[in-house]
Amino acid sequence: MADLSQIVKAYDVRGVVPDQWDEGLAELFGAAFVQVTGAGAIVVGHDMRPSSPGLSEAFARGATGRGADVTLIGLCSTDQLYFASGSMGLPGAMFTASHNPARYNGIKMCRAGASPVGQDTGLSEIRGLVEEWSAAGSAGPPASGAPEGSLSRQDTLTDYAAYLRTLVDLQAVRPLKVVVDAGNGMGGHTVPTVFEGLPVELDAMYFELDGSFPNHEANPLDPKNIVDLQARVREYGADLGLAFDGDADRCFVVDENGDPVSPSAITALVAARELAKSPGATVIHNCITSWSVPEVVRESGGVPVRTRVGHSFIKQEMAATGAIFGGEHSAHYYFRDFWNADTGMLAALHVLAALGGQSGPLSALVASYDRYASSGEINSTVQDQAASAAAVKAAYTGREGVTLDELDGLTVTAADWWFNLRPSNTEPLLRLNVEAREPSTVAEVRDTVLALIG
What we know:
Elements: E1 13-16, H1 23-37, E2 41-46, H2 52-65, E3 69-75, H3 78-88, E4 92-95, E5 104-111, E6 115-116, H4 123-136, E7 151-153, H5 157-167, E8 176-181, H6 187-195, E9 200-205, H7 227-236, E10 240-244, E11 251-254, E12 260-261, H8 263-277, E13 282-286, H9 292-299, E14 303-307, H10 311-321, E15 325-327, E16 333-335, E17 341-342, H11 344-356, H12 362-367, E18 373-374, E19 378-381, H13 385-396, E20 403-405, E21 410-413, E22 417-423, E23 429-436, H14 439-453
Parallel strand pairs: 2-3, 2-4, 3-7, 8-9, 8-10, 13-14, 13-15
Antiparallel strand pairs: 1-5, 4-5, 5-6, 10-11, 11-12, 15-16, 16-17, 18-23, 19-23, 20-21, 21-22, 22-23
Helix pairs in contact: 1-2, 1-4, 5-6, 8-9, 8-11
């Protein structure tokens, strides 16, 4: 019996192949997904990892065995899978381990209209069925009595690209020189088609699909993985650089100097553009984005709503409030016009449109959206997450001029600084983010909290 506690996470399935899971388990997941969602038809896609085609086809076998018709869309980005789910009105499954190393793979699942499947929205039930069937030791899921479903193949890349281009008008912008680092991930598959016909001179880096990631990890959140992009932007004299993660659902931006642009600044920029189209609308931001995000939302006539970190919370809040847009510090960007799903590609198109619609450099454009100093995320390994977090909370409880909230971890806010301390769900870590009006204050608060963590 497989130990699913190691691979079924809060929002997806993820683990080492074949050590922790394999095609046999993938088939069980496909059958369980259909049983839990009650789907008569589903759509399935996969990334460029060597194990992805076999795993996705095994999942499809399990699904057709439970009576569902399966459309395989083959190689795709995660947001391309969300497009297929939304446009076809079908539940979907994407085989990817995002930015994880080559030996990992996983499944991101959604209901029709790209609605998320997480622990509270079906994933725990799926896990329970897979555990039950795995323990029974059968060669596959038990027969359902339903007639076997059909299997078909469809390419959605052209339709995905065309749809994104209907959401952002780039025809009137000035020509731009853009470096894109796909990290040998799915951006190498999607960018050429999305950018086709745009006023963009594209310099492509690492567009060859290679799940062994020969150049660097496809995780632009780690500064060492954007060093090549930064150097190329400076060397090429580009207007900006874009870096996508492995499954190309997140996009990171560097300016004409090669300096990183914070995801909070991108969130504020895109929010202002979306609010120009929908005055008074709601914009979602998680509790770790900069103070600048709610400030810009209010200045643009919108209503900011703060939520927990994580795509399931963002998507739920967007659905509940009718929000037009949502952004996270991790460079996930969510759009009402994209079924409330996250798409880094659409955020990238907004940045191109904003930059190309005026004459100045990107550094000047984003300066008004990047108003504070920040620490970035600092991870501390601890013996006891709860005890370390409690020590920090005790140190600030009752302090004059300071407020505490526990929407997601511990957030402590003062007049000129704030910090958030969150436990990792998967590792013995506490994650600290600090922001302040002055860099010296960031350093002071950071050092104080790290000393309390021990």
